[in-house]
């Protein structure tokens, strides 16, 4: 494990307040705020969610929309003084799963390695999906398992890990 990771992981359920918490963390740092959005607007509901996030963010951020090449985008932005928010890892996993030519697990290692050695501060936001019932179909179970493995790997190299519930942060590491 890297001696001085610059990664923070913020986990929580849907509408838990995790994105707002992470955004405030980045903006209060004083660094150059970069926002990597991994979501894709598949339907009207997702378009509404994306619009809500865009409205809340305002124009304080440099926005990078990147559904697949997350590690490459992080490497391009990796400079001291940059504060990078990745929102979110579970949408990135979804994107990888839906593209037949991409290997989900193979994408994790370079991301985790970069997170462990980055010069920029990276705040990863992700949905904790492993606390509920076992999903009824194979794809949903694979998604839950991929997300759980990625969370463990990022948490292992992160300096801080937070769990957000009802808008309240619980610091789990750091």
Defining key terms:
174 residues; alpha/beta; globular; 24% strand; single chain; seven-stranded mixed sheet
Q: Topology, please?
A:
Blueprint: E1 7-12, H1 18-27, E2 32-37, H2 44-57, E3 62-65, H3 70-76, E4 82-87, H4 89-98, H5 104-117, E5 121-127, H6 138-157, E6 160-165, E7 168-173
Parallel strand pairs: 1-5, 1-6, 2-3, 2-4, 4-5
Antiparallel strand pairs: 6-7
Please provide a written account of the structure:
By secondary structure, this protein is α/β, with parallel strands linked by helices. The protein has six helices and seven strands; from the N terminus they run E-H-E-H-E-H-E-H-H-E-H-E-E. Strands 3-2-4-5-1-6-7 form a seven-stranded mixed β-sheet, sandwiched between helices. A hairpin with a 2-residue loop joins strand 6 and strand 7 (168-173). It is globular and about 45 Å long. The model has no long low-confidence stretch (mean pLDDT 92).
């Amino acid at each position: 494990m890297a001696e001085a990771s610059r990664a923070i992981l913020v986990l929580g359920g849907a509408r838990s307040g995790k994105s707002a918490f992470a955004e405030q963390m980045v903006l209060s740092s004083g660094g150059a705020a970069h926002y990597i959005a991994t979501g894709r607007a598949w339907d009207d509901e997702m378009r509404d969610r994306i619009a809500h996030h865009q409205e809340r963010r305002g124009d304080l951020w440099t926005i990078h929309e990147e559904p697949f090449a997350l590690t490459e985008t992080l490497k391009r932005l990796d400079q001291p003084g940059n504060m990078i928010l990745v929102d979110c890892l579970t949408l990135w996993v979804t994107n990888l799963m839906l593209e037949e030519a991409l290997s989900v697990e193979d994408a994790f290692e370079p991301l985790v390695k970069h997170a462990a050695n980055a010069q920029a501060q990276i705040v990863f936001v992700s949905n904790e999906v492993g606390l509920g019932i076992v999903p009824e179909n194979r794809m949903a179970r694979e998604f839950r398992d991929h997300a759980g493995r990625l969370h463990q790997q990022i948490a292992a190299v992160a300096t801080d890990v937070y769990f957000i519930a009802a808008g309240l942060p619980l610091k789990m590491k750091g």
